[in-house]
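agent> call fold_tool(seq_1)
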Amino acid sequence: MSRATFRFYAELNDFLAPERRGRDTAFEFYVPGPVKDAIESLGVPHTEVELVLINGESSDFRRVLADGDRVGVYPVFEAFDIRPLVRVRPEPLRETRFLLDGHLGRLARYLRMLGFDSACSRDAGDEELARLSAVERRILLTRDRGLLKRREVTHGYWVRETDPRKQLREIVERFDLAGCLRPFTRCLRCNTPLRAAAKAEVAAELPPRTRACYDEFLRCDGCGRVYWSGPHHRRMLALVEEFRGQATKSPNSETPD
């Protein structure tokens, strides 16, 4: 029997049993296989990994383990650029386009509120979600660890938090999104980009009080929804301030629910 030694770093330890966290883990095998298979058999989805060092050398997921190998496995690095070292995938791990499973619907609405392209499929099964994330080049967000281990998924993240607002903060911090917010530019319902609409264009669709009190509107050409700076706008602005540090004056109609 052959043996390799693994050490997982930072938040990758979230996937490990408590007794394995922050320490060397022995991986025994009879038939040598790719390091990707070993990483996932130890509980860590490959989509969470950005750097693999085998005996101090950067390696891709296809590297076949040998007896005595020492393997360091690292998550996404936010503080410094390690692109010259990364070999696990030919393209960057992250783009700011998301696909969320049906259990993260409120998180999807919050991300849209901040301006991020965030598709959400309530009825799609695991196979379809994996396919869509690859075809549409989206980061798959889910709380299902098994989904992230599917071969088709190359860009994904396991959401740790359960409260939607905490999930939003987790995603903004994890993917370093605070500097590229474009709040109130996407439809909360269907994710379509919004456009400015003249009052005359939407007047027939407005409640009488709204028609009398507001003059600036946005329309979604996907689902037809009309947005304006309604009573919930201040609450939405306060949430945006948490992430970019200043108030926003763009119009919208309501907070995600």
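agent> call fold_tool(seq_2)
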Amino acid sequence: MIGFFDSGFGGLTVLKEVVKTLPDYSYVYLGDNARTPYGSLSQEVIYKYTCEGVEELFSRGAKLIILACNTSSSMALRRIQQEYLPKFHPDKNVLGIIIPTSEEMGKFKNIGIFATEATVSSDAYPIEISKFNPTAEIFQQACPLLVPIIESGEFDDLESVVKKYAEDLFIKNKDIEAVILGCTHYAIIEDIFRKYIPGDVKIVLQGKIVAEKLKDYLDRHGEIEDGLKKEKSRIFLTTEKSPHVQQLAELFYGEKIELEIVTL
């Protein structure tokens, strides 16, 4: 079974694309909706919450986990791989979504990134992109208001907020050629970003990238792929269950799903 973890709903946009690309596998998704957003939390708290989510997914039978959350990927992944897994789960793997996204940015000279405060402060994207594209100039824009607004389901204020963040980013460099929507929540409002980003600028979404990179990863790691169930089961877990959470989860995933509540 492959596990997916996010602070809330955003990772469902990634899981949706992965299921399209790799439909035969079994998946378990966990959204920590009771404690979202993570973007303004300290690194230690993000690490603690992410570890709790990872542990729950392992207990549900996941052998491989994707942190479908840029904040967790930037602030907790390396420590999980270096400290947590060797100590508690040496036979399992946890992967993030920042490196796969960064690999796709090799041909651009000027790159913009919209992300949470935690992701921006970590400099994870500039660090990783520079490994694949050393000459690229990278311009980041923290968007602290977006995840709370999206998670609230009250989208009325989104236009003005996205407009302001887009203006702030392009003031830094008007020659930006591509922008990464560096929070999985942002995929659901791509159309709003498009209104305020110049038409010739490429918008990079993470779902399809992660899906293709995961397929390649499994093709190259037969020892991991062999241990994954292919029963086409789908389990959706949440730390908060309500009509509001149900409605937004189905909006992000694009179809009806059954949510099971868990306590971390």
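agent> summarizing second result for user.
The chain has two domains: 2-96+208-261, 99-206. The mean pLDDT is 96.
agent> awaiting next instruction.
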